[in-house]
Amino acid sequence: MDRARKTAPMAPRSTSRLVACALCVAAATACGAAGTARLHVPSPDWREQVVYFVLTDRFDDGDAANNDQGAGEYDPARNSHYSGGDLRGLMRRLDYIRGLGATALWLTPPVANQWADPLTQYTGYHGYWAEHFKKVDRHLGTLADYRQLSRALHRRGMFLVQDIVLNHTGNFFDYTGGWDAADPTRFYRPNAGSLPVAAPSQKPFDLNDPRRAADRRAGIYHWTPGVADYNDPAQESNFQMSGLDDLNTENPAVRRALRDSYGFWVREAGVDAFRVDTAFYVPPDTFRDFLRAKDPRAPGIAEVARRTGRSNFHVFGEGFGIDRPFDDTQAKKIERYMTDAAGHALMPGMLNFPLYGALGDVFARGRPTAELAYRIERTMALHARPHLMPTFVDNHDVDRFLAGGSVVALRQSLLAIFTLPGIPTVYYGTEQGFTEQRASMFAGGHGSGGRDRFDTGTSEYRLLAALSALRRSDKVFTHGSPTLLARSTAGAGVLAWRMAMPGRAPAIVVFNTADQEVLLDKLDTGLPAGTRLQARFALDGRPADVSVGADGRLTMVLPPRAGWVWMAGAAGPTAVSSVAELTLDALPTAAVTGDFQVGGQARGPFQLVIDGDLARAQTVTPDAQGRWMASVDTSRMVDPGIEHEIVAWAAQTGAASQTHRFKVERAWQLLADVADPAGDDAGPRGNYLYPTDPTYRAARSMDLRRVKASGSGGALRLDLTMAGLASSWNPPHGFDHVAFTIFIELPGQAGGSTVMPLQNASLPPGMRWHRRLRVGGWSNALFTAEGASATNEGTSTTPGARITVDRASNTLSLVLPSAALAGASSLRGIKVYVTTWDYDGGYRTLAAQPAGHVIGGGDPATDPRVMDDSAVIVLP
């Protein structure tokens, strides 16, 4: 990676000793009197854990003999096939994982899987296509290997988290050509080419053919086709997600079999917690039964765990739902899987997907920090047990953070989850700077670059070790609650919170998410006057100890991309407040439509600071009578919903005026309106075919019909009208099954590139790009051309686009402020080129024949990944 990396500070010696002692105590608990590791150990306090999540097939290959099972499923050159990682590989890397400060290992399902599915041209290397829920998949090893891994974890004071699936098996049957709810035999098609088996081998899941009367009576499955509309609750609960055979979890026989299957792993492998895949696709009441059923033949998992000495067995589910800013729809849905309508507990926790979305938007894409502040506050208000919700910055189902965010943004995001309520969860390879979603850590695996990636000297590895030490150094980080102290409503800038709990000194956490200095203006710490804030941690260097002022407030300059943590100490002498007079006249209450004048009184020169941005602050000198006037430039203020802040601040005296707020409603001017032909969404030669998954049938989601470009000062708005817009899987941006890659040439700028990264293509003749925007239902990444190549997207930058969707007109609107266009004051001469494809952790696969989520009709090695494109648009 060619981006500069900054060295993370090491944990203080005393903190490192504290962490080591805590791990030693836990390890002693996990060992018997003779010093041998135990299979069953008491549950930990899960609020105090740090989880490391691995996709086992991609982590390490400890036994090459189990790699190829002869089904054509093993091919490390292909992301869709097995690479060879296994349980022995995990076991030999436990000290590497422990060195990060992780106390729990979460691994993808180890159960026997469908190895190869010819209908999707994919394999079950990931573990989520079960054919037998009580056997270890042969690619991963044996039950003895799994027990050995469990014991090795417990010996180190660590815990084992197993990924499980209640919703589905593999893809052993399908409905093609139609579906008749009254006759499950009609249109039924078995997947005869499935390997290594054509149907599950475990009872009762083997009863999967409705053409047999006994199978129909058993009702183990919902005899349904694939989900076409994920916004339909009936389809979400009862139809096949991505073609995977949907279990009838309302059936007592299915529930009993699932309890029996997963109770087996607690008893026989010493598993300490479960993560539940696709929790949204079963009724919430399923989890009451799964955990607490009073069935002597197959008791609930909580009872199985209690019998093995685990009084606090943790279960957390996956609810893939990300809310738009200042909306709580998905967060409320997630809570329904933890707490029922009567207030009774269902699952102890759920993955905090809404927080994940806000972290990326704010730290990686430069969105207003108020969006993350809101999400933190709503997490605490909406969820009964926020401290038991795992938090994360990426995982195996979404883009790697570094696929669209910078290293400094990643470091800030990690500091955030380690200082907020929740269980910090680190996806393998984050500590090695991975950008590919499912690349391998070991040399022989897919995407490894031919070398092992277990380097304990990387800055991210050391950062995570230091963050783990920080989190363990004081229970205020694991048991405390946050109070938001500062936020920016206009864009990147200040974000601060206080973590507090009874009986302990609070911590103050402060960020600057901007790439320039910002003013922390009169931060109300909520602490007594003169309180000494003792520096505990910084992403760069070490912050100085500071004291809060007489009013409990703190004013200071924050360096670019700062991340600081202080612990409150004893109160000391109170600093004398400056008596310098500095005022700012009140502003009009109505929104302004252009540049405007402000004024006030001052005793000497000062800076007029807008939205905390010191890089653009004006230096103002009052006249002889102390009166001053200044003009406010609003050319960068293009979002009418944002409330901006303005303050007069004298650096030498520390004096600051009252802060005033205002809104701007600038007019947009239409610069270009270009129609695109209908039905040309078939690639450069007209032979590409859409994927066959039912969710693609609703609309020609990659057919671009019109591009309108508008300007306001140096800001650019693109309105992209499509033939149709899909919205599967609750995408936070409001659309799915299309990704737009937009190339922008900035006139007068040197450099640029003609290559279209990862798309097997080059720009039309006569154009170079300086900015490249990639926007999908879950992604929003802006790049400069620095370092761009056919395999490298360039250098990530901020701010990303503001995205809105008008479903009535099938129009997506993207707004890029002038800061995203190198500070352009005018759009004259800018060139814009728009392409469509699909994206899911990478540009969607192209193959000779279409499949479930594969675009057909092309050669993946040479053909362009462009479904439709616009003309090159030159703005006047």
Characterise the protein shown here:
It is a single chain. By secondary structure, the protein is of the alpha+beta class. It has four domains: 13-167 and 249-330 and 348-358 and 423-464, TIM Barrel (Alpha-Beta Barrel); 481-571, Immunoglobulin-like (Sandwich); 596-662, Sandwich (Immunoglobulin-like); 669-874, Immunoglobulin-like (Sandwich), CATH 2.60.40.1190. The protein contains 15 helices and 44 strands. The strands form twelve sheets. An eight-stranded parallel beta sheet has the order 12-11-10-7-2-1-14-13. Strands 32, 35, 36, 37, 40, 43 and 44 form a seven-stranded antiparallel beta sheet that branches. Strand 15 (481-487) and strand 16 form a beta hairpin. It is globular, with a radius of gyration of 28 Å. Mean pLDDT is 93; it is low at 1-29.
Please provide a brief summary of the model:
This protein is of the alpha+beta class. Helices cover 17% and strands 24% of the residues.
Describe the secondary-structure layout.
Elements: H1 13-30, E1 51-54, H2 87-91, H3 94-99, E2 104-107, E3 111-113, E4 116-117, E5 122-123, E6 130-136, H4 143-155, E7 159-165, E8 173-175, E9 188-190, H5 213-218, H6 233-238, H7 252-269, E10 273-277, H8 285-292, H9 301-307, E11 314-317, H10 329-336, E12 349-350, H11 353-364, H12 369-382, E13 390-391, H13 407-418, E14 423-427, H14 459-473, H15 476-479, E15 481-487, E16 494-500, E17 507-512, E18 518-524, E19 531-538, E20 546-547, E21 553-558, E22 563-571, E23 596-601, E24 606-610, E25 618-620, E26 627-632, E27 644-649, E28 660-662, E29 669-675, E30 704-712, E31 715-722, E32 739-745, E33 755-756, E34 761-762, E35 771-775, E36 780-784, E37 795-797, E38 802-806, E39 811-816, E40 831-837, E41 846-847, E42 855-856, E43 868-869, E44 873-874
Parallel strand pairs: 1-2, 1-14, 2-7, 7-10, 10-11, 11-12, 13-14, 41-42
Antiparallel strand pairs: 3-6, 4-5, 8-9, 15-16, 16-17, 17-22, 18-21, 19-20, 19-22, 23-26, 24-25, 24-27, 27-28, 29-30, 30-31, 31-39, 32-35, 32-40, 33-34, 35-36, 36-37, 38-39, 40-43, 40-44
Helix pairs in contact: 1-14, 7-8, 11-12, 11-13, 13-14
